[in-house]
Write a structure and sequence with these properties.
- The complex is a heterodimer of chains A (247) and B (138).
- Chain A has 247 residues and is of the alpha+beta class.
- Chain A has 2 domains: 101 residues, Roll (Ubiquitin-like (UB roll)), CATH 3.10.20; 135 residues, Alpha-helical ferredoxin (Fumarate Reductase Iron-sulfur Protein, Chain B, domain 2, Orthogonal Bundle), CATH 1.10.1060.
- Chain A has 9 helices and 7 strands; from the N terminus they run E-E-H-E-E-E-E-E-H-H-H-H-H-H-H-H.
- In chain A, the strands form 2 sheets. Chain A has a 5-stranded mixed beta sheet with strand order 2-1-5-3-4.
- Chain A is elongated.
- Chain B has a domain of 37 residues.
- Chain B contains 4 helices and 2 strands.
- A two-stranded antiparallel sheet of chain B has the order 1-2.
- In chain B, strand 1 and strand 2 form a beta hairpin.
- The chains are: A alpha+beta (247), B mainly alpha (138).
Protein backbone atom coordinates (compact mmCIF):
# COMPACT_ATOMS: atom_id res chain seq x y z
CA UNK A 1 0.00 0.00 0.00
CA UNK A 2 1.26 3.51 -0.77
CA UNK A 3 1.92 5.81 2.16
CA UNK A 4 -0.12 8.73 0.85
CA UNK A 5 -3.29 9.23 -1.12
CA UNK A 6 -4.73 12.16 -3.10
CA UNK A 7 -7.90 13.58 -1.59
CA UNK A 8 -9.72 15.80 -4.09
CA UNK A 9 -12.22 18.02 -2.34
CA UNK A 10 -14.90 20.32 -3.77
CA UNK A 11 -14.28 23.90 -2.64
CA UNK A 12 -16.80 26.68 -2.83
CA UNK A 13 -15.94 30.03 -1.29
CA UNK A 14 -18.77 32.33 -2.26
CA UNK A 15 -16.70 35.47 -1.59
CA UNK A 16 -14.05 34.27 -4.06
CA UNK A 17 -15.72 32.18 -6.73
CA UNK A 18 -19.12 31.81 -8.34
CA UNK A 19 -18.96 28.03 -8.83
CA UNK A 20 -17.24 25.19 -6.96
CA UNK A 21 -13.69 24.20 -7.85
CA UNK A 22 -11.57 21.19 -6.94
CA UNK A 23 -8.61 21.19 -4.61
CA UNK A 24 -6.33 18.21 -4.10
CA UNK A 25 -4.53 17.43 -0.86
CA UNK A 26 -1.92 14.74 -0.46
CA UNK A 27 -2.72 13.03 2.84
CA UNK A 28 -1.10 10.13 4.69
CA UNK A 29 -2.80 6.82 4.10
CA UNK A 30 -3.71 4.99 7.26
CA UNK A 31 -5.64 1.77 7.32
CA UNK A 32 -7.77 2.85 10.29
CA UNK A 33 -8.70 6.25 8.83
CA UNK A 34 -12.13 7.07 7.50
CA UNK A 35 -12.77 9.93 5.04
CA UNK A 36 -13.74 12.16 7.97
CA UNK A 37 -10.34 11.55 9.62
CA UNK A 38 -8.69 12.59 6.37
CA UNK A 39 -10.80 15.77 6.20
CA UNK A 40 -9.94 16.56 9.80
CA UNK A 41 -6.27 16.01 9.01
CA UNK A 42 -6.56 18.53 6.16
CA UNK A 43 -8.35 21.02 8.41
CA UNK A 44 -5.86 20.61 11.29
CA UNK A 45 -2.57 20.37 9.42
CA UNK A 46 -2.86 21.44 5.79
CA UNK A 47 -5.61 23.96 5.20
CA UNK A 48 -7.69 25.45 7.98
CA UNK A 49 -10.09 27.12 5.54
CA UNK A 50 -11.80 23.87 4.52
CA UNK A 51 -15.39 23.74 5.83
CA UNK A 52 -17.40 20.61 6.51
CA UNK A 53 -19.90 19.38 9.07
CA UNK A 54 -19.36 16.60 11.53
CA UNK A 55 -20.08 15.79 15.13
CA UNK A 56 -20.22 12.30 16.61
CA UNK A 57 -17.86 10.45 14.20
CA UNK A 58 -19.70 7.21 14.98
CA UNK A 59 -22.69 7.05 12.61
CA UNK A 60 -25.28 8.45 14.98
CA UNK A 61 -25.56 12.21 14.43
CA UNK A 62 -26.00 12.19 10.66
CA UNK A 63 -23.97 15.37 10.09
CA UNK A 64 -21.10 14.14 7.93
CA UNK A 65 -22.97 12.96 4.84
CA UNK A 66 -21.04 13.77 1.63
CA UNK A 67 -20.52 12.27 -1.77
CA UNK A 68 -17.45 10.07 -1.96
CA UNK A 69 -16.44 9.15 -5.51
CA UNK A 70 -19.96 10.00 -6.62
CA UNK A 71 -21.89 7.99 -4.01
CA UNK A 72 -23.58 9.53 -0.96
CA UNK A 73 -21.81 8.23 2.16
CA UNK A 74 -21.45 8.92 5.85
CA UNK A 75 -17.81 9.97 5.82
CA UNK A 76 -17.31 8.72 9.39
CA UNK A 77 -18.13 5.18 8.27
CA UNK A 78 -16.27 5.14 4.94
CA UNK A 79 -12.70 3.89 5.05
CA UNK A 80 -9.89 5.27 2.93
CA UNK A 81 -8.72 1.71 2.34
CA UNK A 82 -11.85 0.98 0.29
CA UNK A 83 -10.79 3.61 -2.24
CA UNK A 84 -7.11 2.86 -2.56
CA UNK A 85 -4.98 3.71 -4.44
CA UNK A 86 -7.14 6.80 -4.97
CA UNK A 87 -7.62 9.56 -5.86
CA UNK A 88 -10.63 10.00 -3.58
CA UNK A 89 -13.14 12.66 -4.59
CA UNK A 90 -15.26 14.27 -1.89
CA UNK A 91 -18.10 16.67 -2.71
CA UNK A 92 -21.20 18.02 -0.97
CA UNK A 93 -24.49 16.15 -1.13
CA UNK A 94 -26.46 16.68 -4.33
CA UNK A 95 -29.64 18.75 -4.71
CA UNK A 96 -29.16 20.91 -1.61
CA UNK A 97 -27.78 24.44 -1.98
CA UNK A 98 -24.08 24.57 -1.13
CA UNK A 99 -23.33 27.14 1.56
CA UNK A 100 -19.57 26.66 1.55
CA UNK A 101 -17.17 23.86 0.53
CA UNK A 102 -18.84 20.65 1.75
CA UNK A 103 -21.59 22.30 3.79
CA UNK A 104 -25.12 22.20 2.40
CA UNK A 105 -28.28 23.88 3.63
CA UNK A 106 -30.93 21.45 4.89
CA UNK A 107 -33.74 23.89 5.69
CA UNK A 108 -35.88 22.43 2.91
CA UNK A 109 -35.82 19.01 4.55
CA UNK A 110 -36.50 20.36 8.04
CA UNK A 111 -39.61 22.15 6.76
CA UNK A 112 -40.82 19.05 4.95
CA UNK A 113 -40.21 16.88 7.98
CA UNK A 114 -42.41 19.14 10.11
CA UNK A 115 -45.16 18.92 7.47
CA UNK A 116 -45.60 15.16 7.92
CA UNK A 117 -46.16 15.55 11.69
CA UNK A 118 -43.49 13.17 12.97
CA UNK A 119 -44.84 12.79 16.47
CA UNK A 120 -47.45 10.65 18.18
CA UNK A 121 -50.93 12.04 17.55
CA UNK A 122 -53.74 11.03 19.92
CA UNK A 123 -57.39 11.92 19.45
CA UNK A 124 -57.58 12.15 23.19
CA UNK A 125 -54.63 12.05 25.53
CA UNK A 126 -55.03 9.69 28.42
CA UNK A 127 -54.47 11.39 31.80
CA UNK A 128 -50.94 10.71 33.10
CA UNK A 129 -52.42 9.01 36.14
CA UNK A 130 -53.58 6.11 33.94
CA UNK A 131 -50.00 5.22 33.15
CA UNK A 132 -47.98 4.87 29.97
CA UNK A 133 -49.11 3.57 26.58
CA UNK A 134 -47.91 -0.01 26.50
CA UNK A 135 -46.49 -1.74 23.48
CA UNK A 136 -45.53 -5.36 22.81
CA UNK A 137 -42.17 -6.30 21.21
CA UNK A 138 -44.07 -7.20 18.01
CA UNK A 139 -45.72 -3.78 17.93
CA UNK A 140 -42.31 -2.15 18.38
CA UNK A 141 -40.92 -4.35 15.64
CA UNK A 142 -43.56 -3.06 13.20
CA UNK A 143 -41.98 0.42 13.01
CA UNK A 144 -38.54 0.11 14.60
CA UNK A 145 -36.71 -0.05 11.29
CA UNK A 146 -38.14 3.32 10.20
CA UNK A 147 -37.26 4.90 13.53
CA UNK A 148 -33.54 4.32 12.94
CA UNK A 149 -33.31 7.32 10.57
CA UNK A 150 -30.62 9.84 11.57
CA UNK A 151 -31.61 12.53 9.02
CA UNK A 152 -28.25 12.30 7.27
CA UNK A 153 -29.83 13.19 3.91
CA UNK A 154 -27.96 10.56 1.92
CA UNK A 155 -31.32 9.35 0.59
CA UNK A 156 -32.24 12.82 -0.72
CA UNK A 157 -28.89 13.08 -2.42
CA UNK A 158 -29.47 9.67 -4.03
CA UNK A 159 -32.99 10.51 -5.21
CA UNK A 160 -33.12 11.88 -8.77
CA UNK A 161 -36.81 12.67 -8.26
CA UNK A 162 -35.92 15.11 -5.48
CA UNK A 163 -33.37 16.68 -7.82
CA UNK A 164 -35.87 17.04 -10.66
CA UNK A 165 -38.92 17.90 -8.52
CA UNK A 166 -37.64 19.91 -5.55
CA UNK A 167 -41.15 20.01 -4.07
CA UNK A 168 -41.11 16.26 -3.41
CA UNK A 169 -41.38 15.59 0.33
CA UNK A 170 -38.70 12.96 -0.09
CA UNK A 171 -37.59 9.58 1.26
CA UNK A 172 -36.58 10.26 4.87
CA UNK A 173 -39.60 12.43 5.70
CA UNK A 174 -42.01 9.84 4.29
CA UNK A 175 -40.23 6.99 6.09
CA UNK A 176 -40.54 8.97 9.32
CA UNK A 177 -44.24 9.57 8.66
CA UNK A 178 -44.57 5.83 8.21
CA UNK A 179 -42.67 5.29 11.47
CA UNK A 180 -45.49 7.06 13.33
CA UNK A 181 -48.27 5.50 11.24
CA UNK A 182 -47.06 2.02 12.17
CA UNK A 183 -46.79 2.92 15.84
CA UNK A 184 -49.59 1.24 17.81
CA UNK A 185 -49.86 4.31 20.08
CA UNK A 186 -50.49 6.71 17.20
CA UNK A 187 -53.86 7.76 15.80
CA UNK A 188 -52.74 10.30 13.22
CA UNK A 189 -52.44 8.09 10.12
CA UNK A 190 -55.44 9.66 8.35
CA UNK A 191 -54.08 13.16 8.97
CA UNK A 192 -50.68 12.25 7.55
CA UNK A 193 -52.20 10.42 4.59
CA UNK A 194 -54.04 13.60 3.61
CA UNK A 195 -50.73 15.48 3.50
CA UNK A 196 -48.78 12.72 1.78
CA UNK A 197 -51.44 12.02 -0.86
CA UNK A 198 -51.01 15.54 -2.17
CA UNK A 199 -49.07 16.25 -5.33
CA UNK A 200 -45.69 16.48 -3.58
CA UNK A 201 -46.16 13.34 -1.52
CA UNK A 202 -45.85 9.62 -2.11
CA UNK A 203 -47.05 9.64 -5.73
CA UNK A 204 -44.04 11.64 -6.90
CA UNK A 205 -41.89 8.63 -6.09
CA UNK A 206 -41.31 6.37 -9.10
CA UNK A 207 -39.39 3.78 -7.09
CA UNK A 208 -35.83 4.30 -8.20
CA UNK A 209 -34.87 2.48 -5.01
CA UNK A 210 -31.49 4.18 -4.63
CA UNK A 211 -32.50 5.80 -1.31
CA UNK A 212 -32.67 2.39 0.31
CA UNK A 213 -29.31 1.37 -1.12
CA UNK A 214 -27.42 4.37 0.27
CA UNK A 215 -29.14 4.40 3.70
CA UNK A 216 -26.47 3.75 6.36
CA UNK A 217 -29.08 2.71 8.94
CA UNK A 218 -31.06 0.23 6.77
CA UNK A 219 -34.25 2.25 7.12
CA UNK A 220 -35.52 1.30 3.65
CA UNK A 221 -37.33 4.54 2.73
CA UNK A 222 -38.23 3.13 -0.71
CA UNK A 223 -40.09 0.29 1.00
CA UNK A 224 -41.84 2.74 3.32
CA UNK A 225 -43.07 4.83 0.38
CA UNK A 226 -44.33 1.83 -1.62
CA UNK A 227 -46.16 0.47 1.45
CA UNK A 228 -47.63 3.91 1.94
CA UNK A 229 -48.83 3.94 -1.68
CA UNK A 230 -50.60 0.65 -1.04
CA UNK A 231 -52.30 2.14 2.03
CA UNK A 232 -53.19 5.28 0.07
CA UNK A 233 -54.68 3.32 -2.82
CA UNK A 234 -56.63 1.00 -0.50
CA UNK A 235 -57.92 4.01 1.38
CA UNK A 236 -59.00 5.69 -1.86
CA UNK A 237 -60.89 2.58 -3.07
CA UNK A 238 -62.56 2.20 0.33
CA UNK A 239 -63.65 5.83 0.36
CA UNK A 240 -65.03 5.39 -3.17
CA UNK A 241 -67.03 2.31 -2.25
CA UNK A 242 -67.99 3.33 1.26
CA UNK A 243 -67.96 7.15 1.27
CA UNK A 244 -69.55 7.23 4.70
CA UNK A 245 -67.28 4.63 6.29
CA UNK A 246 -63.78 6.15 6.21
CA UNK A 247 -63.97 9.14 8.49
CA UNK B 1 -44.18 26.12 11.45
CA UNK B 2 -42.52 29.41 12.40
CA UNK B 3 -40.02 30.47 9.81
CA UNK B 4 -36.78 31.85 11.12
CA UNK B 5 -36.95 35.58 10.37
CA UNK B 6 -33.19 35.71 9.75
CA UNK B 7 -33.24 32.94 7.20
CA UNK B 8 -32.98 33.94 3.54
CA UNK B 9 -34.70 31.40 1.34
CA UNK B 10 -32.95 32.20 -1.94
CA UNK B 11 -29.58 33.25 -0.72
CA UNK B 12 -27.78 34.74 -3.71
CA UNK B 13 -24.43 33.32 -2.76
CA UNK B 14 -25.46 29.71 -2.31
CA UNK B 15 -24.48 27.48 -5.12
CA UNK B 16 -27.20 25.35 -6.68
CA UNK B 17 -26.17 22.62 -9.04
CA UNK B 18 -28.50 21.88 -11.91
CA UNK B 19 -29.48 18.29 -12.57
CA UNK B 20 -27.83 17.13 -15.77
CA UNK B 21 -30.03 15.80 -18.57
CA UNK B 22 -27.78 12.72 -18.44
CA UNK B 23 -28.33 12.03 -14.73
CA UNK B 24 -29.65 8.56 -15.57
CA UNK B 25 -26.27 7.54 -16.96
CA UNK B 26 -24.48 8.42 -13.73
CA UNK B 27 -24.83 5.00 -12.18
CA UNK B 28 -26.07 1.60 -13.16
CA UNK B 29 -29.18 1.53 -11.00
CA UNK B 30 -30.41 4.86 -12.45
CA UNK B 31 -30.00 3.42 -15.95
CA UNK B 32 -31.84 0.23 -15.03
CA UNK B 33 -34.58 2.38 -13.49
CA UNK B 34 -35.02 4.48 -16.64
CA UNK B 35 -35.02 1.33 -18.80
CA UNK B 36 -37.69 -0.15 -16.53
CA UNK B 37 -39.82 2.99 -16.92
CA UNK B 38 -39.39 2.89 -20.72
CA UNK B 39 -40.65 -0.69 -20.81
CA UNK B 40 -44.14 0.66 -20.18
CA UNK B 41 -44.14 1.94 -23.79
CA UNK B 42 -43.68 -1.62 -25.02
CA UNK B 43 -46.32 -2.94 -22.65
CA UNK B 44 -48.68 -0.37 -24.18
CA UNK B 45 -47.58 -1.53 -27.65
CA UNK B 46 -48.56 -5.14 -26.84
CA UNK B 47 -51.88 -3.96 -25.45
CA UNK B 48 -52.60 -2.01 -28.65
CA UNK B 49 -51.72 -5.00 -30.85
CA UNK B 50 -54.11 -7.15 -28.79
CA UNK B 51 -56.89 -4.59 -29.22
CA UNK B 52 -56.18 -4.45 -32.92
CA UNK B 53 -56.46 -8.25 -33.06
CA UNK B 54 -59.76 -8.16 -31.18
CA UNK B 55 -61.17 -5.62 -33.61
CA UNK B 56 -60.10 -7.74 -36.60
CA UNK B 57 -61.60 -10.81 -34.97
CA UNK B 58 -64.91 -8.99 -34.62
CA UNK B 59 -64.79 -7.94 -38.29
CA UNK B 60 -64.65 -11.56 -39.49
CA UNK B 61 -62.18 -14.21 -40.68
CA UNK B 62 -60.96 -12.24 -43.73
CA UNK B 63 -60.01 -9.19 -41.72
CA UNK B 64 -58.25 -11.41 -39.18
CA UNK B 65 -56.26 -13.25 -41.86
CA UNK B 66 -55.23 -9.90 -43.33
CA UNK B 67 -54.06 -8.68 -39.94
CA UNK B 68 -52.09 -11.86 -39.32
CA UNK B 69 -50.39 -11.45 -42.69
CA UNK B 70 -49.50 -7.86 -41.77
CA UNK B 71 -48.16 -8.88 -38.38
CA UNK B 72 -46.04 -11.56 -40.06
CA UNK B 73 -43.94 -8.97 -41.87
CA UNK B 74 -40.26 -8.88 -40.84
CA UNK B 75 -40.53 -5.37 -39.38
CA UNK B 76 -43.32 -6.49 -37.05
CA UNK B 77 -41.40 -9.62 -36.08
CA UNK B 78 -38.37 -7.55 -35.11
CA UNK B 79 -40.57 -5.07 -33.24
CA UNK B 80 -42.33 -7.92 -31.46
CA UNK B 81 -39.04 -9.50 -30.43
CA UNK B 82 -37.74 -6.19 -29.01
CA UNK B 83 -41.07 -5.50 -27.29
CA UNK B 84 -41.13 -9.00 -25.82
CA UNK B 85 -37.65 -8.58 -24.36
CA UNK B 86 -38.70 -5.29 -22.76
CA UNK B 87 -41.95 -6.76 -21.41
CA UNK B 88 -40.06 -9.65 -19.80
CA UNK B 89 -37.64 -7.10 -18.31
CA UNK B 90 -40.65 -5.11 -17.08
CA UNK B 91 -42.24 -8.16 -15.47
CA UNK B 92 -39.08 -9.40 -13.79
CA UNK B 93 -37.93 -6.02 -12.45
CA UNK B 94 -41.39 -5.27 -11.04
CA UNK B 95 -41.77 -8.76 -9.57
CA UNK B 96 -38.44 -8.35 -7.84
CA UNK B 97 -39.69 -5.11 -6.28
CA UNK B 98 -42.93 -6.53 -4.84
CA UNK B 99 -41.51 -7.58 -1.43
CA UNK B 100 -40.68 -3.90 -0.82
CA UNK B 101 -44.31 -2.82 -1.21
CA UNK B 102 -45.96 -5.93 0.24
CA UNK B 103 -45.18 -6.51 3.87
CA UNK B 104 -47.06 -9.54 5.11
CA UNK B 105 -47.01 -10.61 8.70
CA UNK B 106 -47.62 -14.16 9.75
CA UNK B 107 -47.95 -14.88 13.47
CA UNK B 108 -46.32 -11.55 14.28
CA UNK B 109 -43.25 -12.21 12.10
CA UNK B 110 -42.56 -10.58 8.77
CA UNK B 111 -42.84 -13.05 5.89
CA UNK B 112 -39.36 -13.20 4.25
CA UNK B 113 -38.92 -11.43 0.89
CA UNK B 114 -37.97 -14.68 -0.82
CA UNK B 115 -41.28 -16.29 0.05
CA UNK B 116 -43.32 -13.37 -1.34
CA UNK B 117 -41.20 -13.38 -4.49
CA UNK B 118 -41.54 -17.14 -4.85
CA UNK B 119 -45.32 -16.97 -4.50
CA UNK B 120 -45.49 -14.23 -7.14
CA UNK B 121 -43.38 -16.18 -9.61
CA UNK B 122 -45.40 -19.33 -8.89
CA UNK B 123 -48.66 -17.47 -9.58
CA UNK B 124 -47.16 -16.13 -12.81
CA UNK B 125 -46.15 -19.65 -13.91
CA UNK B 126 -49.56 -21.13 -13.06
CA UNK B 127 -51.44 -18.38 -14.92
CA UNK B 128 -49.10 -18.60 -17.93
CA UNK B 129 -49.58 -22.37 -18.01
CA UNK B 130 -53.37 -21.93 -17.84
CA UNK B 131 -53.29 -19.44 -20.75
CA UNK B 132 -50.98 -21.70 -22.75
CA UNK B 133 -53.33 -24.63 -22.09
CA UNK B 134 -56.36 -22.71 -23.36
CA UNK B 135 -54.50 -21.47 -26.45
CA UNK B 136 -52.76 -24.71 -27.40
CA UNK B 137 -55.66 -27.07 -26.68
CA UNK B 138 -57.28 -26.49 -30.06
Amino acid sequence: MPSTVALTVARYRPEQESAPTWQTYEIPFRKDWVILDALNHVKDSLDGTLSFRWSCRMGVCGSCGMKVNGTPKLTCATFLSDYMPGPIRVEPLDYFPVVRDLVVDLTDFVRKLARVKPWIIRREEKPPGEGEYLQTPDQLDAYKQFSMCINCMLCYSACPIYGLEPGFIGPAAIALAQRYNMDSRDEGAAERLRILSEHDGIWQCTFVGECTKVCPKHVDPAGAIQQYKLTGATNWVTSLLLPWGTR
Amino acid sequence: MNADPHYTLYHPRWYRRRVSVWWWLQNRSYTVFVLREITSVFVAFFALVSLWQLRALAQGPEAYALLLARLGRPIFLVLDAVAFAFVVFHAITWFNLTPKAMVLRFRGKRVPDGVILGLNYAAWLVLSAAVAFVLLRG
